[in-house]
Amino acid sequence: MIGRLMLALGIVAASVAGCGGNSSAQEASGRVTVGSGGILLDGQRWEPYGFNAYQLATDWNINSGCGAAVDLDRFFAALPRRSLVRFDAFQALATNRVTGELNFAPIDAVFAAAERHDQLLIPVLSPQDGSCDGNRFKERQWYVDGWHEAAAPFTLSFRDWMTAAADRWKDSHALAAWELVGEPETSTCADAACSWSLRDCTADAATVLRAFFDTAGAELRRHDPRTLITAGLAGGGQCGAQGDEYRTVGASPFVDVLQYHDYGADTVALPGDEWNGLGQRLRQAAELGKPLLVGEVGELAGSCESVDARAANIDAKLDGQRAAGAAGALVWSFVPDPRTQACTYDVGYDDPLWSVVARHADRS
């Protein structure tokens, strides 16, 4: 499996002049690949560090937005070169808020800016909870067949949006991996608000989630056979990926990079218990021979803790996770307008976490 991925997966360079690698073998495999349980960039071991920056595609002249608009050149120029950024590339952000027609310009702009500054991207194609993308929680049935069906206010089903995205951006020099759904889970809601405490998890939840990755992943790979696919699993025991089910889902041939999302254990490098903790997820990833990216690592600061204390805690956490075998990490979350008087995960331009990210990126 790994050997096939080394030959077949990765990013198509936007042009020969812009490609980071020069050998014909490297051009055949693309820029980003996986091998020996790790991630490679331009044929060299790469431990990606960077930020989640969900609102990069906000453009109030076109879409309904998701947070404040971002000066894209300022953001990407501030990052260490060849950092990794995970952002929302939802259908809603490619939809004109007045006419309802597709308009790819806001997401095009994110890719173009990342390319100008030699940065790498993970576009998340849809959210589990529906935030900024129709506000509909994805229940178990969506993973069975709902992803084939268009639902208001959108013109495309998820399947069609996924393939349209692949066809449009698969050749970008900035594309590191596709993420189908952010924090997928196959729960069934018991109330209109889909309260987490009232969700039901059926006995076939893992089977349904694995089948989704097998089927949707195969469809995506038909459109883009060279780019990695990362499963945006939170990893903390959510429905469909509890305990050993995480390994079952991660074993899909169309999942190349696993994830874990780290919150609530501010001074602990490997949070969680023996069944659903990060230590267990790293062991499962190693058994599968696949890298694990800490796709979100967040800590509250502002009115509840100083940003300096947060930076020190996350710096130590990333050291521990690297030593334990994590492939890299992305801080949650950059915003251009941090709420400094509130207790939030916001990371603005002046936050000391930028120095933390730079330190870890320089070591990779």
Provide the descriptors you would attach to this structure in a database record.
364 residues, alpha/beta, TIM Barrel, six-stranded parallel beta sheet, three-stranded antiparallel beta sheet, 13 strands, disordered N terminus
Characterization of the model:
With 364 residues, this protein is an alpha/beta fold. The chain has one domain: Alpha-Beta Barrel (TIM Barrel). It is 31% helix and 15% strand. The chain has 11 helices and 13 strands. Strands 6-5-4-12-10-9 form a 6-stranded parallel sheet. Helix 3 links the parallel strand 4 and strand 5. The longest helix is centred in the middle third of the chain and has 19 residues. The two termini are 25 Å apart. The N terminus is likely disordered.
Unreliable stretches, pLDDT < 50, 5 or more residues? 1-28
> What is the correct CATH architecture?
Alpha-Beta Barrel
The CATH class label is Alpha Beta
Sketch the topology as an H/E string, one letter per element. HHEEEEHEHEHHEHEHEHEEHEEH
